């Protein structure tokens, strides 16, 4: 439970079943709530092993019910085309197009370095991710955060992803614009070799990026969909083009094929119907 408490904020010996239940209720209301994480917290017995407490107050707590899964958001083909066309001269044009064409997670795309891009082979390597974390200070109650570099989400998330050739050309143009931005910033620019840094070369704050994305959607008169919708749209377009499940799993970096299947279970039936419909010409004379 250390992840969810500031050091020294709560005395272990004061833990009770009621407190354990209340804390799990709080987790349920937060976006990172999930059965796996609650199970992990419930089974934390380190305090018992270290004799800070004589029993784990979470042992007898009934886990709150998981909220129903939200339906994933996907752009229609028309919306996707409209969005891309609306990005002319937009600073994040190349970033948004790359996500639509590769399905990268937001933390993965902002952590890309130019050394990860292979222009000749039209591919990129996902080797790191950026994440904003809270900084814990025992002597202060301040709520400071910082962007840190981490390993990708799972072992499978470390992957090589092919890039459509048209997007490779977009990246070349983006690199030229970035050099112009660097010259304009002068000495304030710190070159971290990032593909999509902020205006002075530092890691892009994903909060600012999602705001920029929302404004771009509004300008294009497209109903709001979360940033992750671009990743879901990438996968959906692949399924619509009859790319098989294992290939999509590898491109997305999912840890198992079951995860891919579970997420896109509503898409697969439609794809199967369209695939079978292509056989109609064989039976045209029936």
Task: Describe the structure in your own words.
This protein has 286 residues and is mainly alpha-helical. The protein has 2 domains: 2-50; 77-272, hpI Integrase, Chain A (Orthogonal Bundle), CATH 1.10.443. The protein has helices at residues 17-28, 35-42, 46-49, 77-86, 93-102, 106-110, 165-185, 206-219, 229-240, 245-252, 257-263, 267-277; strands spanning 117-118, 123-126, 129-134, 145-150, 159-162. Helix 5 packs across helix 9 and helix 10 (245-252) packs across helix 11 (257-263). It starts with 16 loop residues before the first helix and ends in a 9-residue tail after the last helix. The model is unreliable at 1-14 (pLDDT under 50). GO terms for molecular function: DNA binding. It holds the Pfam family Phage_integrase. Residues 70-277 form the Tyr recombinase domain.
